[in-house]
Design brief:
Blueprint: E1 3-4, E2 9-14, E3 17-28, E4 34-42, E5 45-53, E6 60-66, E7 72-75, E8 81-85, E9 88-92, E10 98-103, E11 107-113, E12 119-126, E13 133-140, E14 146-152, E15 162-163, E16 169-172, E17 176-181, E18 184-190, E19 199-202, E20 208-212, E21 215-219, E22 225-230, E23 242-243, E24 249-252, E25 257-260
Antiparallel strand pairs: 1-3, 2-3, 3-4, 4-5, 5-6, 7-8, 8-9, 9-10, 11-12, 12-13, 13-14, 15-16, 16-17, 17-18, 19-20, 20-21, 21-22, 23-24, 24-25
Length: 261
């Protein structure tokens, strides 16, 4: 998972040079190593660095300068770091070597790597087949080749695409959850709450948990509700629901952690 860092100033040291900036994303790796997306603005020009460091960024082992705005970060199945910027997708390995760079005209909004190893990116672009501008769910292989895409009706998406083990892509916004598979929208489920905090998690069996305002919904893989939990109306769930090893659902508001049996 990608943990978004607070926009506080950090220090990153490289070859005895100290550079101040803002850490925007963290990718926890093994042995307490971190990969961060580092933002620096000099003379009104924004630069992005991807760097590998030990815990608390006390020592930086390498950093790679990237160009392009709107950076999004993810890690693939080979533990390479994927950086999607405007019109360019960068791939950097754990040794700090840029191993691939794919050019594809698009402004990224959200990015996920599926269990199938494909990149699922929500972006502003011109459709490859439709030739119309809009917001697209674009699915690409590791070289940036587009496998399929589907035009969406909004660019306001609550979280990165959620990908099931069988390649179903779920897109959640503040009005509905949509399920896509190979260019087609399979089904959608309307969300009654108008809050923008809806989050979802797909389980191993293909069922979906959704936090929807003060509700938690449990849908089967066909988009049909199995059960609905109604919490206190004043409490708005902020996190994606998760399932623990005792098959309890855990979700949090701004003030409480709720466990649902």
């Amino acid at each position: 998972p990608i943990l978004k860092g607070e926009r506080n100033n950090y220090l990153a040291a490289m070859n005895s040079q100290v550079t101040s900036g803002v850490i925007k994303y963290f990718c926890p790796l093994q042995d307490n190593y971190l990969v961060g997306l580092f933002f620096k603005e000099t003379n009104n020009y924004a630069s992005h660095y991807i760097l590998m460091s030990n815990e608390y960024f006390r020592k930086t082992f390498w950093q790679v300068k990237l160009y392009g705005n709107y950076p999004l970060s993810a890690t693939d199945l080979e533990s390479n770091i994927i950086l999607a910027t405007k019109d360019i997708i960068h791939v950097v390995n754990q040794k700090g070597k840029k191993i691939r760079e794919s050019k594809r005209e698009a402004t990224p909004i959200q990015l996920s790597i599926g269990p199938d190893g494909l990149m699922y990116m929500i972006c502003l672009a011109t459709g490859i087949h439709t030739k119309t501008e809009g917001t697209y769910l674009r699915v690409m292989d590791k070289y940036g080749n587009v496998k399929w895409e589907h035009k969406l009706d909004t660019h306001i998406i609550n979280q990165p695409p959620i990908i099931s083990n069988n390649g179903m892509a779920y897109i959640i916004q503040n009005k509905k959850l949509e399920a896509f598979s190979k260019r087609k929208k399979v089904w959608e489920y309307t969300l009654s709450n108008k809050e923008k905090s809806q989050k979802a998690t797909v389980l191993k069996n293909g069922n979906i948990l959704i936090s929807n305002g003060s509700q938690v919904l449990y849908l089967n893989k066909y988009g049909k509700p199995i059960w609905i939990y109604n919490g206190k109306k004043k409490d708005i769930f902020q996190t994606p629901p998760i399932l623990d090893n005792k098959k309890r659902v855990i979700v949090a508001t701004a003030h409480h952690i709720v466990v649902i049996k």
